[in-house]
Fold this protein.
Amino acid sequence: MKVAFVIPPSTLKERYGDLMEAGAVYPSMGIGFIAAVAEQDGHSVVVIDAEAEQIGYQEIQERLEQFEPDVIGFQTFCANLDRCRKVAQNAKNSDSSVKIVFGGVQATLFPEQQLTDDLVDFVVIGEGETAFSRLLDALQNNHDISTVPGIVYRNKDNLIVYTSKPPLIKNLDDLPFPALHLFPMDKYHSSAQLRGNNTLHLFTSRGCPYNCSYCSGDLVFGKTFRFRSAKKVVEDIQYMIDRFGVDGVQFYDETFTVNRVRIFELCDAMIESGLDIPWACFTRVDLVDEEILLKMRDAGCYQIFFGVETGVERLLKLIRKGTTLDQARTAFKLCRKLGIETLASFMLTLPTETVEDTEVSIRFGLELDPDYVYWLTFVPYPGNDLADLAKETGTIIKTDPSTYNVFNEIVYLPEGRTEAEIRRTIARAYRRFYLRPKYVFRQIRKLMRLPPSKAMTLIRGGFRTLFKKEV
């Protein structure tokens, strides 16, 4: 069969706001894995990444008409759902026989909402590789769709059918490397603070055992932590170097250091292989200590992104983060001692958060003194526990979900707060952090480690953010 995957149009401004130049544009590894399995099964596959190529709906449709797909797949989020539907509607208007398949977080959370009209033929829930592969086989060979696990669809009687629960892939080594050769690889770039002229991201694990109330990721990948073997990860990185000229890696695992033994095995394998490539990762403040950080540093780790979220113990408990302020202090102190850069992300304006709470979080960010900090506002994404509490304790002021992924968009106001006050508070927080003399002098040397283009991008983005006129 002929299969197309489409990433709908979007701009860096729409995603990152004032930091549009500093934000990353990466190929979708989710689509990459599913496309690789489809190719492995013998199907003809194309990927149209309209976001990376900065093309519009008309050019997408022209390419689809030229390819004449039997099936078009979309990875849906709340922020891109309407755009996916517009691409799908254009395709259906041109060829009513084409099958439209929605997957991803939004489709998994609300499958029936995707089936309220005749636009979407099938919804894949959870992990997509096995379900999508079996769905294509059933369509190609006219088999009963109800036998395909992980599918939601309307039958001939117009009744919504849920097939059996989709199985999780137990051994991630069984998956082929994502089909990046189908993507416009010259159009992607990493965040400006990451080293390397050609840094790409890589998933080495799936699943998260934690229970943060603002996250719905476990509905797709489950709470069972699964990972690719150290040998396979090293092979993946070497392939990225050889095929795409990668000179830096960002491990995109939700929580990279969940399995301590695995991290030591991976770091040892990277050292023994002689890869000698700089890398960054995401993890939690309670999952690092001096021993593991030292091993990671020796294997090439130079930067860690920590989701600190708040400096208020009460709010940490509210969001079920499972960490403490002292654990954050220890993690950042150890990284500084070992020369590993840190990026702290704070989620301000949580439900029930007061003006005083926000000030405490900002002061805590100053105390931690990371290399970079993000002051983000809470977004009540549909489908998680915190979204329901937000409705009870404040006001959701933006109803258009396409704005929910914008870096500096304010979507929710806790009770007693105003949009103008929050914008002023965040603007001042950035200036309080980034305009400290000791910080400026410290960062000048670190900027020298970045490619000149990235250093200038950070500087431009910084000036735009720090000196933006207050509301």
